[in-house]
Specification:
This protein is mainly β and 113 residues long. The chain has no helices and ten strands. Strands 2-10-9-4-5-6 form a six-stranded mixed sheet, with no helix packed on it. A four-stranded antiparallel sheet has the order 1-3-8-7, with no helix packed on it. The chain starts with a strand and ends with a strand.
């Protein structure tokens, strides 16, 4: 299984932006789909965004129009650009190889009001 390492989390004020990165240990050019998920304290892990090998994009309803997922195969990296952040976006964000099953260790995003 490919190993995934997230980075880019931190503390930001409401309305601000962050860009998360997910670095894979192996090539992602043949990975069927990569995704971002998040889990807030006391809540289930929820889908945030996904991108397929053919660059088909998907977003959770709560982030549509604010978050953008992208991939850079030459760097084996998937990104999540998060704009107009809200306090309810506070969570640990995880990168996921949807078909292969791997998860990263997560990166904390905290949005202050």
């Amino acid at each position: 299984q490919v190993q995934l390492v997230e980075s880019g989390g931190g503390l930001v004020q409401a309305g601000g932006s962050l860009r998360l990165s997910c670095a894979a240990s192996d090539s992602i050019s043949d990975v069927d789909a990569m995704g971002w998920y998040r889990q807030a304290p006391g809540k289930y892990r929820e889908f945030v965004a996904s991108i397929t090998r053919n660059n088909r994009l998907g977003y959770g309803d709560s982030v549509k129009g604010r978050f953008t997922i992208s991939r850079e195969d030459a760097k084996n990296t998937v990104y999540l650009q998060m704009n107009s952040l809200k306090p309810e976006d506070t969570a640990v964000y995880y990168c996921h190889d949807i078909a292969g099953g791997s998860w990263g260790q997560g990166t904390q995003v905290t949005v202050s009001s």
